[in-house]
Task: structure prediction
Amino acid sequence: MFHAGTFLSAICFFGLVGMSLALLLQIFIVNSQYRSCVVLPNGLTVGYEAWIAPGRNLWQPGVVLKSPIGSTLVADDLDLFYFSATTAYGHDRNDENSFDIAYRADTGLVLGEENPDLYHRLIDEAGPLLEEGKSLQNSNLLHVYYQLRDVSAYGKNWCRLSFFPHMAGDGMTASGG
Result:
């Protein structure tokens, strides 16, 4: 004899197995499109952040600026992004929480509002923008990523994509939101 409880248990079991398979499919197959990244000459990477990030749609990672060890430096897309052989800098002007950032390996991330003298010094000492940086002037971080990901000198890299964002070691990240 067939029991209703057994039938309900079977439906729950197969539903759970189906959802688990869909999640694994999302993680392992779709994940590969989000693992590509652009490595800049100063060691920074431009790539996708994480599957689950505050303020973003679930399963839709955003393009962010990461440190050489892979932690997120800037959790928002930058409206304007520039890079030279030693320095990267940019601005976010989307909302009332606008900010300016500069990064160089010896100083790390510098927020223009917190240390304006060092911020301006880093930009003055950055040197000329690289050829690709010149052609991408006045581009946002997402556009820089899409333009450079297939350029052999920068793109075609495989970067780690985690479930949750890894912020910079000292907890200092720039975020406009």
Summary: Residues 4-34 form the longest helix (31 residues). The beta strands are 36-39, 45-48, 63-66, 72-74, 80-83, 87-92, 99-104, 108-111, 157-158.
